[in-house]
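Human: Respectfully, please carefully check these tokens:
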Amino acid sequence: MQWWRTFEKHPKACLYFSVVWLFLICGLAFLWQLGSTGLVDETEPLFAEAARQMVETGNWVTPYFNGETRFDKPPLVYWLMAMGYQLLGTNEWAVRLPSALSAIALVIVGFLTLRTFGSVRSPSETPLKRQLWLSGWLGAAMMALNPQTLAWARIGVSDMLLSGCMGCALFCFFWGYVASEGKQGGLLPNRWYLAFYVLLSLAVLTKGPVGIVIPGLTVLAFLLYLGNFWRVLREMGILVGGLIFLGLTVPWYVLVILENGRAYIDSFFGYHNVERFTEVVNGHGAPWYFYFAVVLVGFLPWSVYLPLAIARLKFWRRSLWRRQPRSTHLGLFALAWFASIFIFFTIAVTKLPSYTLPLIPAASILVALFWSEILTEAKPRKSTGFWLSGIFNVVLLLALAIASFYSPQLIGYDPVAPNFGERFGQTAIPLRSAILWTAVSGTIALLLRQKKAWRGIVSVNLIGFAAFVLFVGLPALSFVDLVRQQPIRELAAIATQAQQSGEELLMAGFKKPSIVFYTQRPVRFFYGESDTRDYLKAGDNPQSPTVLLLTQSSALANSFNLSPNQYENLGQSGAYQLIRIRKQAIAQP
């Protein structure tokens, strides 16, 4: 560790390195090519268009999509996207920037927290500066470079914003918890607790009651375990904090209920909150072990060391933890954070992979503390648990390499892109991914056999995943956009130019909300040929004798039984075709 002693003689060098480190990992993970691909159907365009309609209509209370109310989520994400439109224009960058900035804020605050409290040493030992720096660097990288965070930080939906608000709120709580040690609680909480209340309010304005329920369960579990619940509650200035929270959250909920009445209450609180916890919604059911698989895959490659990192805390030694100063409790707090989210959503009946996104920062803290301690131990040794974790690391990455190689054959049929698997196999992406993960897996296997070099496993995992993002993940995303989403954008541009006054735009066979965003016009969606005919027979829109119809190319002959002389072909791209047709032609059986 000679290089560390040289590094520590120049404290500013660590600071400068940290700035560069955060800039590189956040730039690669969240900003590089952020707006280079189109909106991803089905969910992202719903958010993007609801925000656009807020700007267009001036109604900042009730979100709308395609002329209908959208009560799925509270307004904060729409407000931020709408602000982005006004600053950057109506484009993908503005849609995704709230998610990217939320992830960046979470990584930076997480780094600062680990840099200050990132040690699991006993109170009689002074935390090594090198361990604090390593905790911060590793924790920041793990928070940013994992599949879950990457996926949700680069898409314009509310999940990353919620995770950022809740995560930063919990970090602020911990700072306030440490700052209050040995002090008498008063009416006014310290500044960290004040930030905690503000961020909780933003979380509730992002996704509703879950924004306070999850952080509340984390804090409750943490304080009950340590036996200082009532003391910390007094320190937190709960009365002032509650007033701040209510003052920031209640006004919008009052306004939206006044504007929409019972419809909003039943939809948002009933369907999107209570029913999601107690019943299977939209077919999103899964077995009880679902989130074990989600965390394993979603937190790769760091998840293989998570059980060992949890065990290393020795959380069962409650009396020991209660005697330690608060500044040493970060690992225990991260465990309460991780467990409360994991258990809560395991109990919930509706299950989605995105629900575990808010526990990723906690998992990153646990694994970063584990590795920083290993890397700074004077005489580290490979325990049986570490051996097993390392072997699992090798096997899992090797399995990922094999899956990458055969991925074109594993891709199922998609009517939107019928030859997707074949075209994907023609690119270099599957082979590139297979070679990369084979190399990383083999390198880790070699390091496991070494007496000292085995500590470099964490660096190999980090470099391997960063290379995967740069050379596999982003090119794959561009390919998917080219095959699945670009045809919609191309035909949306044609429809915008060709649409005549009073002429409706219909989409039959698919519901792709991105067509609404890119045409900036209302679109009527129909799943089948009979629904389309029934609508045209009804004659609800007598303003134009023709309609624009966007559907699968093969459907024109197979479903609608149209010959080429019965419609005007305006454009074809991918599996889609855009035509102009007289209503009478398609309304007849």
